Amino acid sequence: MRQVMLTVLMLGLATPGVAQEEGEDLRDGFDLLGEGTRMILEGLMDEMRPLLDEARPFFEDEVLPMLERMGELVDDLGHYELPERLPNGDILIRRSEDAPPIEPLPEIGEGGEVEL
């Protein structure tokens, strides 16, 4: 992975300067630069695809349900302050004082009944 990133960085630094004498030459240079960038990104995706396929079940089974539940509880991230870590390791995310009030979650009664 480091080799791929280093190669991309070196190619970016090694590109020759484009003369700005004629507008057409400049456009051609940008077209070639764009094509080269596309080819590099396609190669990177070909190398990353097996890792992404391997990680897909974890994201679908673990991360996605957590994000969906968090989306149900948090209305707009702009209404919250940056997280703060407490000395005991807990992470606290406070709601901003100027944020509009949120509707309370429905109470769950005995037997899992919810009154709407």
Describe this structure in words.
The chain has 116 residues and is mainly alpha-helical. It has a domain at 22-97. Helices cover 55% and strands 3% of the residues. It has a two-stranded antiparallel ribbon. A hairpin with a 5-residue loop joins strand 1 and strand 2 (91-92). The longest helix is centred in the middle third of the chain and has 51 residues, at 23-73.
Strand order in space, largest sheet: 1-2
Oligomeric composition of the shown chains: single chain
Weakly predicted, low-confidence segments:
none
User: What's the N-to-C terminus distance?
Assistant: 52 Å
What's this model, at a glance?
The chain is 55% helix and 3% strand. The protein contains 2 helices and 2 strands.
Provide the descriptors you would attach to this structure in a database record.
single chain, 116 residues, mainly alpha, two-stranded antiparallel sheet
Strand and helix map with partners:
Layout: H1 2-14, H2 23-73, E1 84-85, E2 91-92
Antiparallel strand pairs: 1-2
